[in-house]
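Dear colleagues,

As part of the handover before I leave the project, I'm documenting each prediction I ran so the next person doesn't have to rerun anything. This entry is a single chain, and its sequence is reproduced below.
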Amino acid sequence: MSINDNDIILEIKDLKKHFAPHQSLTQTLTGKNRKVVRAVDGISFGIRRGEIFGLIGESGSGKTTTGKLVMKLIEPTSGSIVFNGEDVTVTDKERTHAYRRQVQMIFQDPYASMNPRFKIKDVLEEPLIIHKIQGDHNEHERMIIKALNEVKLNPPEEFMGRYPHMLSGGQRQRVATARTLILNPLMLVADEPVSMIDLSTRAEILHMMKDVQRDLGLTYLYITHDLSTARYFTDRIAVMYLGRIVELGPADMIIDDPKHPYTKALIDAVPEPKTGKVDIIKELPISGEIPSPANIPPGCRFHTRCPYAKPECSAEAEPELIDIGGGHFQACRRYKEI
C-alpha cells in the first residue's frame, strides 16, 4: 500500500499529559506542593494512512504515556488528538467505545493481557462480545479462524482449544495480534510488542506484523526503545526525550545520519553483530540518568547529559524542532557539530 503524504490518519497537536503527584498530609498542612510530573510535554506529529510510525526513547521518555493517550486510556492535560478527520480528544463513552474498535493496542506482555482461564477461542471471541459484534457462535468462530490465519497460526483449529500457558511467547504474541485484528481496526498501537519475546523469534514476529500491515492496509504506531528493530520495521521515526520529540524523520535518515546528540547516543549503543561472538549490549555513551519529569532542566532538557553542551544550552530558551530538509526535523542548535 502506498503512503500518501497528504493522507493523515492520526494527528497529534501540542499534546501534554501532566500528572499531579499525591501529597502527604504533612505537605498538605505545610502548604508545600510537589512538582507536577510533565510526562508528555507538548508533542506534535502526524501519522500517514498505511504508515508504520516509530516512537523511540529510553524508559521515562514519555513514549508509553503517548501510546496511552492515543488509546484514550488516560485523558490529556491539553492539546488535541484528531483521528480520521475527527477530533477525538474529548469524547463521550459511546464514541470512545467506537474509537477503540478502530484503534486497537498490542500490549508488551501478551501473557499478562490474556485471561489464563480462557481458551484461545475465548480470548479472541471476547472483543467480539465486548463490542457487540453481531453473529452466532458459528459466525464468531469463522472470524476467529480468519484472524488466526492472518497471523499464521495454522491450522487454527489446533490452537483454538489451547490455553495461553500452552503457547510459546511468539505464539502468544500472534494471538494478541489476532485479537486486535478480529475487530477490523484501521490502526494498531504496538507498545514494545517483541521486548518480552526470545531474540530468535523477534524478527519472525515483526515480519508477521509487517505482512499483516501490508495485506490489510493497516497503520501502526510502534513504540520501542530498540532502534535496531525500528530501522527494519518502521517508515518514519520520532525520538522522544523527557516528554518532548527531539528528532523526527524517515527511518533510514534518522539511523544513518542522526542530527540530535541524543539520537546519536541511542544509535551508538546498538550492539554490532560479529561473526562467532556473542553481542554485548552497550551502555548509552552519555553520562548520568534521565532527569525526573518533575524536575526538567532549563533550556535544552538534554544539556545535563549532552557531550556537546555549552553554557548557552541551559541559558537559552528550549530549542524547537526545525526542518533541515527531506522531512527531517531536529531540536538541537549545535546539530552541525555532531
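Residues 10-21+36-272+281-337 form a domain with the Rossmann fold fold (CATH 3.40.50.300). The longest strand covers residues 8-19.

All the best with the project,
I.
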